[in-house]
Amino acid sequence: MENKKGAQIILHAFYLLGLTSMLFASLAVADYEEVALEQLADVTNDEKNSMQTYIVWVEKPVSQKFSPQSNEDLGSWYQSFLPESIASSNQQMNQRMVHSYRNIATGFAAKLTPEEVREMETKEGFVSARPQRILPLQTTHTPDFLGLHQGSGLWEAATYGKGVIIGLLDTGIVPDHPSFNDEGMPPPPAKWKGKCEFNETLCNNKLIGARNFIGVGKGQPKRRFPFDIAGHGSHTSSTAAGRFVEGASVYGQANGTAAGMAPYAHLAMYKVCEGFGCADADIFAALDVAIDDGVDVLSLSLGGPSLPFYDDVIAIGAFAAIQKGIFFSCAGGNSGPWNRTLSNEAPWILTVGASTTDRILTSGLQIGDEKQYHFDGKSLSQPEDFDSTVLLPLVDAGSFGNQSSFCKAGSLKNVEGKIVLCETGGGVTNIAKGEEVKRAGGAAMILMNKEIDGFSTLAEAHVLPATHVSYAAGLQIKLYISSTSTPKGTILFNGTVIGDALAPKVASFSSRGPNIASPGILKPDVIGPGVSILAAWPYNVDNVTHPNPKALFNIISGTSMACPHLSGIAALLKSTHPDWSPAAIKSAIMTTADVLNLVGSPIVDESGLKPADVFAIGAGHVNPSKANDPGLIFDLKPEDYIPYLCGLNYNDTAIKIITQQAVKCSQVGAIPEAQLNYPSFAITIGPNQTRTQYYTRTVRNVGPATSTYNLELLVPHEMGMSVNPQVLTFTEVNQEITYHVEFNAHDGAGKDGVPFGQGYLRWFSDKHNVTTPIAVLFDS
Ligand SMILES: *[C@@H]1O[C@H](CO)[C@@H](O)[C@H](O)[C@H]1NC(C)=O
Ligand SMILES: *[C@@H]1O[C@H](CO)[C@@H](O)[C@H](O)[C@H]1NC(C)=O
Ligand SMILES: *[C@@H]1O[C@H](CO)[C@@H](O)[C@H](O)[C@H]1NC(C)=O
Ligand SMILES: *[C@@H]1O[C@H](CO)[C@@H](O)[C@H](O)[C@H]1NC(C)=O
Ligand SMILES: *[C@@H]1O[C@H](CO)[C@@H](O)[C@H](O)[C@H]1NC(C)=O
Ligand SMILES: *[C@@H]1O[C@H](CO)[C@@H](O)[C@H](O)[C@H]1NC(C)=O
Ligand SMILES: *[C@@H]1O[C@H](CO)[C@@H](O)[C@H](O)[C@H]1NC(C)=O
Ligand SMILES: *[C@@H]1O[C@H](CO)[C@@H](O)[C@H](O)[C@H]1NC(C)=O
Questions:
Q1: Among the residues of 70-152, which ranges form H helices?
Q2: Residue 534: in which H helix or E strand, if any?
Q3: Peptidase S8/S53 domain spans which residues (predicted)?
C-alpha cells in the first residue's frame, strides 16, 4: 500500500518540478513530494482565476485564400479561430497569441478562456485543443569510463563529432563558459539556419545558435535571452558536446579534464524551461524551429508522465524530427524504482535510464569506541577542516518523535556537537536536512536511505560534514545507537575514488518500464551515466577559489544527465555513419550495449544490489565503440510506424496529429506493436492474448560482406521459443534477411505469481554480437 501511495506522489513531483541548482539530485530521489503538492495547489488556484495557454490543433488551410507556403497566410488562418473580439484588435492579438507552429504541425498556442475554446470548437477546420502542460526537467570522467580516449578509437574515427549539430531544449546556456569555446572549430555547415538571440558576439563556432521560447510574442513586455540561470542547460550541453577543459573540479573533487561526448560537435540551445518547469506549448514551438534550423540530434532532458502519443507534444515533435533524419534522445524520468514510471516512451525516441560510473565521492562513517565499524557513504562537499580523529556523540533524529527522523526545519533540539542521523524523504531535501542539523548546532549528519532506494546514495553539496549511507547501513547504525548509552563515531573524508568494480549500477531513481503508452515496445532503451556527473555550471557552488572563475562546474545526478551522454554518442555515430537513419543509430546503440559490469557479472540495481531487470536497463549500458561497429542493424523508415500506430488502436484523426498526413488504417492495415522492426521484444501473455505469438524481424548487414551469424537464445521463464532460420548467411553489404520468431507460453504460464520473464535473442559471428533483449509480461 505504502509503495502505491509513494508512486502516486512521485508522479505529482515529476510532473511539476523543474530544476534549480541542487534541486535535481534531490528530485531524483523524490524528496520533494510535499513541496510539489503545495505548488500544485497554487497553480490550480491561479488557473481558476484567469485564462490559460491552450495548444490548438487545426486542419491545414484548404481554401484558396490561404497558401500554406506563406507565413502570413498561416497566421491569418490561425487568427480566424480566435473570437472576433480578439482577432479584430492587434493589441488583443499580440497579448493572446503565444506561438504559431509552422513546420511540424498545423496549430498554435494562445491564451484563452474555456468559453472561448468552446466557441472555437464549432469552427470548420478545428481539430482539438487542450491547456498546455508544465513538464519538469528531469562530467570529467565519463568519456574514459565509456572507452572514449583522445587520439584513438571512436573519438578519432568520428573526429570528435566534427560537423554534427546537437540541439538541446533546456534552461538556456552560459555562452562564455570555457566548455563552449570555439578554438579550432570550423564554422557551422552551410545548411544551418539557426539564430543567436544573445547579442551576436556571444555565439561562436561551438555555440552556433541560442534562442528563447519563454514569454515570447509581440505583447510581451520585455525581450528575454537564452541565458542559463538554473544551471541544468549548461550542464546537459557540456555533457553532450563540451570542449576539453583542464582542472575541472567541484569542492576539489573529481578533478580532471572535463569533456563532453562529442567535443567538436556544434551546439544549439533552445530555452524552454525556467527553474519551475517547461511549458509544452513552448517545447513544441522550439521543436518546430529546431527541426527547420538543421540540427542533426535533439536532446531533451525533460518529460512528464506517460501520455498517448497523439496527446504528447514531445512524441509528435520527435516524429517530425525522425522524418528529417534527426536523432531524438530523451531522459526516461526520475521516478524509479517503481515500475511503469517512464516518460518519453515512443518507439521513434531513444529513452535513456541512469546508471553509476566507477567514480565515487566517498565519505565513510566509523563508529564504536575503537572505530571498529566502518560504513561506506558519499558526499560532494569534503570539508578539509573536519578532524576525523575525534569521536563525536551520535544521535538518531528519529528519537525526538513526531517525524523528526526527516530532520524537518525546526524539529531538532539538543544536538549541539553531535552527529545526527536523518532519514531521506518526508518532503525535505537532503541539503535542507543538513541545514536543519547545522541550525540546531549539530556537528555532522548521517543521511540514511529509505528502504525502497536501498544502496542508491548521492554525493551532494551538504552545508556541513555529512555522509549518505544505504538503508542497510542505516539500520545497523540505528541499532548501534540504541545499543549503548554513549554512541560515538566520526566521518572520514577519503575524496574521489575511482574503481568501483560493480559499476555501472542502475540508480534507484531511474524510471522503470513496462511501457504504459505502448506495452509492446520495451523501454527504457538503454542506460548511460547519470549519477554524480561533473559538467559546466553558471555559478560557484563551493567555497574553493577557482583559478578561472568562468570555468565553474557542478556535480549532479538524474536521467537528465544520462540523456545528453547518449545524444553526444549519437552525434559521433552520425559522423562515422552519415547515411544511417535515426532507427539504425538506435539499433547500433542497443544491440551492442553491455549487460555485464566491470567484473563481468550482471549489472545490478542499486535499490537492492540484485541483478537489474530488463525494465530497468532495457538493452543495457551503452558501449560507444561497439555501437560504431554493430555488424547488423534493425532499421525503420518513418512510414513503418503507421501500421504500428493503427495497431495501437489510434483512430485516423489521432494518427494524423502524430504523422501530419492523412492515414486510413482500414487501408494501411494494422500490425501488433511487437511486430515493429525494433531491436528488442516486449510481449504480453494474458487472457486476451493468444498464447502462441509470431513475429518477424529484418536485419541489414553493415559488417563484412561475407558473414555468417549463429543463434543464441536465452528463453524467458515459462516460455518456449523457436527461430527460423537459425543461421543468417550474408554475401553482400546492406543485404537484408528476415527471420521468424515464435513465442509459446507454457500451460499455466503466469500462474506462479512471477509477473514477468526475460531473456535475449542473440546473433553472433566471429566479429559481432547482435543482442536483442526480450521481456514477457504475464497479465492474468
Ligand atoms: C553584448 O554583450 C556583451 C557582454 O554581455 C556586452 O559587453 C556588450 O555591450 C553587448 N553588446 C550589445 C550590442 O548589446
Ligand atoms: C587538479 O589537478 C591538477 C593537475 O593534476 C592540479 O594542478 C590541480 O591543483 C588540481 N586541482 C584541485 C582543486 O585539486
Ligand atoms: C512491479 O513492481 C512490483 C512491486 O514493486 C513488483 O513486485 C513487480 O515484479 C514489478 N513488475 C514488473 C513487471 O516489473
Ligand atoms: C507533532 O506535531 C504536530 C503538528 O506539527 C503537533 O500538533 C503535535 O503536538 C506534535 N506532537 C508531539 C508529540 O510533539
Ligand atoms: C581511500 O582512498 C584510497 C584511494 O584514494 C583507497 O585505496 C582506499 O581504499 C580508500 N579508503 C576507504 C576507507 O574508503
Ligand atoms: C479519435 O481519438 C481521439 C483520442 O482518443 C478522440 O478524442 C476523438 O474523439 C476520436 N475521433 C473519432 C472521430 O473517433
Ligand atoms: C480482455 O478483454 C475484455 C473484453 O474486451 C476486457 O473487458 C478486459 O478488460 C480485457 N482484459 C485485459 C487483462 O486486458
Ligand atoms: C560475444 O559475446 C561473448 C559472450 O557472450 C564473448 O565471449 C565474445 O567475445 C563476444 N564477441 C565479440 C566479437 O564481441
A1: 71-79, 84-87, 90-96, 114-121, 142-145
A2: strand 533-536
A3: 161-597
Band of residue 322 on the pLDDT scale cut at 50, 70, 90: very high
Active site residues: 170, 232, 560
Q: Which residues line ligand 4 (CB under 6 A)?
A: 401-402
Task: Using alpha carbons, list the distances in angstroms from residue 553 to 81, 265, 425, 544, 647.
Answer: 48, 20, 27, 12, 47
| CA dist., res. 471 & res. 454, Å (int) | 5
* Local confidence band at 13 (pLDDT 50, 70, 90 cut-offs): very low
Closest by Cα among 676, 738, 509 to 607? 509
How many Å apart are CA 379 and CA 386, to the nearest integer? 13
Residue 102's identity, in one-letter code, is R
Select from 361, 380, 391 the least CA-distant residue to 491: 391
Q: 361-487 in CATH: which number?
A: 3.50.30.30
pTM exceeds 0.85, yes or no: yes
Burial class (CB in 10 A: 0-12, 13-18, 19+), 410: exposed
Q: With a cut of 80, say whether residue 199 has pLDDT above it.
A: no
Fold of domain 142-357+505-627: Rossmann fold (3.40.50)
C-alpha torsion angle, residues 68, 70, 71, 76 (rounded to 10) = -70
- Residue ranges per structural domain of the chain: 52-131, 142-357+505-627, 361-487, 631-636+676-778
Domain 631-636+676-778 has CATH 2.60.40.2310: yes
Report the nearest atom of ligand 1 relative to the CA of 200: 1
Alpha-helical segments (H) within 486-627: 559-576, 582-591, 614-617, 624-627
Q: Whose CA is nearest to atom 4 of ligand 6?
A: 654
Task: Label residue 771 exposed, middle or buried (CB < 10 Å: 0-12, 13-18, 19+).
Answer: buried
State in Å: Cα 13 to ligand 5 middle: 37
Strand partners, 775: 682, 758
- Give the number of C-alpha atoms closer than 13 A to the C-alpha of residue 39, restricted to the C-beta side: 18
Ligand 5, atom 12, lies closest to the CA of: 494
For the domain 52-131, what is the CATH code? Answer: 3.30.70.80
From the CB of 363, is ligand 5 less than 6 Å away? no
Rounded to an integer, what distance in angstroms lies between the CA atom of residue 583 and that of residue 591?
Answer: 12
Number of H helices, E strands in the chain: 21, 36
How remote is the CA of residue 309 from the centroid of ligand 7, in Å? Answer: 22
Lowest mean pLDDT among 131-145, 448-462, 586-600, 742-756: 131-145
Minimum CA distance residue for ligand 7 atom 8: 688
